Amino acid sequence: MRPERAKALNYFLPHMKTPLLLLALCLSSVAGAADFAAWTHRQTVRIAQPGLTRIELEPELLDASSAKGGAAFHDLRVVSPAGLAMPYIIALPRILRPEMVNAAGFKTTLNPSATVLEFQPPAGSTITEVLLQTNAAEFIKSATLEGSNDGSQWQTLASNELICRQNGTERLRFTFAAAAWRQLRVTLDDARSTPVVFTGAQVRRDLPEWRTLAQPVRMRERTETAGETHLKLDLGSANLLLGKVRLHTPEPVFQRDATLLDARATLFRLQHEGRSGEDLDIAVHQLATTREVELVIRNGDSPPLKIESIEATRHPVPVVFQADAAGEWQLYIGNAQATEPRYDIAVLGEKLRDASAQSATASAVEANADFRKTATAPEVGDVGPEIDISPWSFQRQVQFKEPGVIVVELTPEVLARMANDLHDVRVVREGHQLSFLANKPGSQREVEVDIVEVADPKAPMWSKWDVKMPFANFPASELLLDSPTPLFARTLTVSEQLETEKGHFERILSNANWQRQPGQPVSTFHLSLYTAPRTALMRLATDNGDNPRLQITSARVLYPVVRLLFRVPDATPVQICYGNRHAPYTRYDLQFVRKEFENATQVVGTLGEEEKLPGYEADPRHPSGNGSPWLWVALALVVGALLWVVAKMLPGKAEG
Q1: What is the 3-state secondary structure (H, E, C) of 289-358?
Q2: Smaller CB count within 10 Å for the chain: N or C?
């Protein structure tokens, strides 16, 4: 915001009776008519009359948000009937932690069968909770909380509540409807147990109301691991501002620690003399950016809880803006490339949050009919320099259904023929290069391979296996092994045999220690390879010493996921060329917009059949053992020359 505008706002702000006048000062920040082809979804909002307008964003709209970094939902745009993007604020609820303050005048009175605690909250405070304080380690009592404004007439706020500290479970809290009380009184039943010394009390000041709506939740998956229950919860939408999550379980008595997003809670249910107390809520009050979230319940040495269902609430997400005209307005959302808007109206956030505003009616969220995938990527130029592909060995057609940012995953067969650093890859369209990005997300794919134990009479103490790869030069990065043997400690070696023009030699691919102790669960062993094998056969070996032979029942290999991203303006055919060890390294300006390019809406492409190019030659990484034919020609010439020289040096036949 310009300095002169900031000064004007600072002057007018204390004198405004309504934010509407100040809002008018901010309308100069309205953007011009814009092209919204890069936004994936929209919703029509019908406004009956101009004025300050508030509408709550529906979960379907929030789910479509692609905002990454910055403020939540910053890819939202509010567009007037004239096609102008208007300034707005998102009036998120004030998610504040409770303010606990000490009560005054704390007094304890011991009666024959009860302990009475009396204290006063801060004057003029609206309170919703009382927390008792004590150093006692083990107790459980029934308690009643009352409030009064004159000291003579008392109103019951909570009756027959269980207050306890037992086996790590603590419940010293009363919650009740928000109200202002001058005096509070807690009566604890001592008829069946000795009195407990309480040292004080705290009260929680009332916070602005956090209105919540019910949000359906579905348990998609449950996994039990060592001492923990992992529940995958489907919220039905991403980008929800979760309120509370509550578990429903029939278990009569339990205590568990639980974690959801960054929220932690102790869940428990206890029973005492026919009464029960429980806390089954997790106060989340956080933005869930994904549709699925994981709830972790730590069971310790106790059996897992039986969970019948889970319910949740969400906070509404209102957007507030000044409608300068009646009619059909549009809300656009779903653009990962959208920059975070910087409206002058943002300085009025706190005033507009609670300002009186009219509501509007909205249609269902729908896909944006004007959306174009090509609009989601930065302009990088569609035509590169000319290229002569004759030095390359192979090419494959890239098949795609529509123009845009194409993403194609390279298969192991293609990776096997490329340089490890991909410097020999080119994306070609009508004889010209296309700039591309190589994306390596760090994930891997798994392929099952054959493993056969091999007997070696010369090494009876060793176990050896042949691991057959799908083909030579397979881009394997890890070998996964399964063994039912319950107790062992072995050093494994992975190698391969190479035949070259210089002879035969063994190439070590990896060494690793693998052990399993009593009580350890059976799990797959991940053996990382130093380098990918060149041949189609790997040898796995280990020395058993004086121990029983190690059993290996199955094997798989992992290879890295590699994708190419490039942009095409139309359906003109595109080829990927590879297999040219003399190719220079590429230098594309596209690297400067890597983040924006990777966030663009992508079209999945696939690779067609492999075609040989004029530069095809036997892969030098897969020597056949016969040598180059040119080498044989050269050797023949050398041998012939030597024979000719020797023949000339021999003495001639004597004349007879």
Answers
A1: CCCEEEEEEECCCCCCCCCCEEEEEECCCEEEEEECCCEEEEEEECCCCCCCCCCHHHHHHHHHHCCCCE
A2: C
In 3-state terms, the chain is what percent helix, strand and coil (to 5)? 10, 45, 40
Q: How far is CA 525 from CA 112, 489, 532, in A?
A: 67, 12, 18
- H helix or E strand, kind and range, residue 10: helix 3-12
Rounded to whole angstroms, how far apart are CA atoms 203 and 101? 6
Summarize pLDDT for 587-634 with one digit per residue, the tens. 888 888 888 888 888 899 999 999 999 988 754 444 333 444 555 556
Same domain, 438 and 478: no
Per-residue tokens: 163: 């207050």
Please tell me the pTM assigned to this model: 0.65
Shared domain for 472 and 406, answered yes or no, is: no
DSSP state of 84: B
Q: Per the structure, how many domains does the chain have?
A: 5
Give the separation between CA 487 and CA 463, rounded to whole angstroms.
16
Query: Which parts of the chain register pLDDT below 70?
Result: 1-34, 94-98, 206-210, 273-274, 345-356, 618-636, 638-639, 644-656
DSSP count for the chain of H helices, then E strands: 7, 46
Instruction: Give the DSSP H/E element, type plus range, for residue 174.
Output: strand 173-180
